Amino acid sequence: MSQHTTEITVFGRNYTVACPPDQQQQLRAIAAELHNRIDQMKKRTGNASMEQLAVMVALNLLHEKDQQRLAQGEEQLQLQRRLNALQVTIEQRLSERTTNPQKAVESDPEAS
């Protein structure tokens, strides 16, 4: 099985990276984004080494990822609460129909 590789450049340094052919365009886009973030960090920090810049950018990226994970968790929790409330409402309506079918039909606007 042959290993597919692609060349990327990040902040003036060339790297050969193993990458399936169908993901090369995405890898190049990610490398360009990494280059931009390192460049922005260099402008903000001044005389930092490449290693320091890479660590700071990595920390920022992981922080962003963690913030997104937390936000998604909160959204999922809110969605679950809404689904639970909807389930309770549906179960109540179904219970009303089985215990008193005539009253349920009278109060159902679609039954008319």
Total DSSP E strands: 2
Task: Report the total helices.
Answer: 3
Cα separation of the termini: 69 Å
The coarse silhouette is elongated
Mean pLDDT: 87
The Rg value, from CA coordinates, equals 28 Å
- Given the helix and strand composition, which structural class is it? mainly alpha
Order of helices and strands: EEHHH
The percent range for helix content is over 70%
The biggest beta sheet, please?
2 strands, antiparallel
Q: How are the strands ordered across the major sheet?
A: 1-2
**Percentage of residues in DSSP E strands:** 5-15%
Low-pLDDT runs: none
Descriptive report:
By secondary structure, the protein is mostly helical. It has 3 helices and 2 strands; from the N terminus they run ββααα. The chain has helices at 24-45, 50-99, 101-107; strands at 5-10, 13-18. Strands 1-2 form a two-stranded antiparallel sheet. A hairpin with a 2-residue loop joins β1 and β2. α2 packs across α3 (101-107). It is elongated.
Kindly summarize this structure in a few lines:
By secondary structure, this protein is mainly alpha-helical. It has helices at 24-45, 50-99, 101-107; strands spanning 5-10, 13-18.
List the helices and strands and how they pair.
Layout: E1 5-10, E2 13-18, H1 24-45, H2 50-99, H3 101-107
Antiparallel strand pairs: 1-2
Annotation keywords:
single chain; 112 residues; mainly alpha; two-stranded antiparallel ribbon; 3 helices; 71% helix; elongated
